[in-house]
Amino acid sequence: MRLFRIPLLAMGLFFSVSFNLHANTVLADNIHSSAIALRDKKSALSKSTTIDLKELIADPKKYDFFTFRPNLEKLILSGAADTQHISILWYTIPNGSVGLHYHSMTESVYTIDGTQTDAKGVYPTGSLYFNPPESGHKITNSTGFFILAYASPPDFSNTDKIKPYTPVQINTADPDLEKNYTFTYSQAGVKVYDVPLDPKGGMSSKIIKSTSLIRYKYLGNYLLVLKGSCNINGKVFDKDMLVVAKTIETQSYSLSATAGDSCLALGLSF
Q: Is 6 part of any domain?
């Protein structure tokens, strides 16, 4: 028996050391992963602007709007007016208007509060629409606030290039939104509707519904909470909160539901 005692002890010591090394490696990997996750959370939000749209509507003069057209103010959130950009438009009078203009790339419009009208329809609060590349329109009878995203700026000179088009329209306030549009499961507890946009238009968009506390990763330029309460990169945002990248560079956002509430959000990406 003595002949086997030393090897067995040595073997036990070997397994003990190996187990400890493995455990320490796993622990170090977990700490490293947690540190990376925390860094990414802080990084995305530090590179983003957060806007409470209710506060903006209540007191728009607190923000750095500039005059875009007569009786029409614009707040640039990312990018620049003469390039692709995300902005908020504010009609300062009832029945505001914008002259005919051309969109060489996709345009996105979300009605924060009010109504926008063009030849294709009337878009009340909660409406989302996308005009495809080579489209164009004239705005009439419009008032309120709107989130705009342009893959290229509106062109008021080359209106002869406008071709027949059909906008993609979504009523985000529709109580049957999830029934009327094809949401597919991306992961457990997360359903996504990919808005059918022309891939040549330089823009993509998703509507994300989460009932899970497990994070869904979204690479994009903004997230708008449409309903419920969303945890975005470790911070809770309620309805009408907008998180938008400060530049046109996309950011890695993580999104989940919060305890006791679901999350419905609109994501847009260049």
A: no
Full DSSP string of 223-266: EEEEEEEEEETTEEEETTEEEEESSSS-EEEEEEEBTTB-EEEE
Which two three-digit tokens encode residue 49? 């602007």
Residue 8 lies in a domain: no
For 173, 209, 226, 265, the CA distances from 185, given in Å and listed in that order, are 21, 9, 19, 15
Which structure tokens are listed for 217?
Answer: 């990763």
pLDDT of 239 higher than 70: yes
Q: How far apart are CA 162 and CA 49, in angstroms?
A: 34
Average pLDDT, the chain: 89
- pLDDT grade for 42, boundaries at 50, 70 and 90: low
pTM: 0.84
Domain extent at residue 157: 54-171
d(CA 254, CA 267): 12
Establish if 159 belongs to a structural domain. yes
3-class DSSP state for residue 267?
A: strand
Q: Is 33 within a domain?
A: no
Count of domains forming the chain:
1
User: Among 177, 175, 256, which residue's Cα sits nearest to residue 214?
Assistant: 256
**33: enclosing H helix or E strand:** helix 2-46
pLDDT tens, position by position, 61-97: 999 999 999 999 999 999 999 999 999 999 999 999 9
Residue 103: give its domain's CATH number: 2.60.120.10
Residue 19, pLDDT above cutoff 50? no
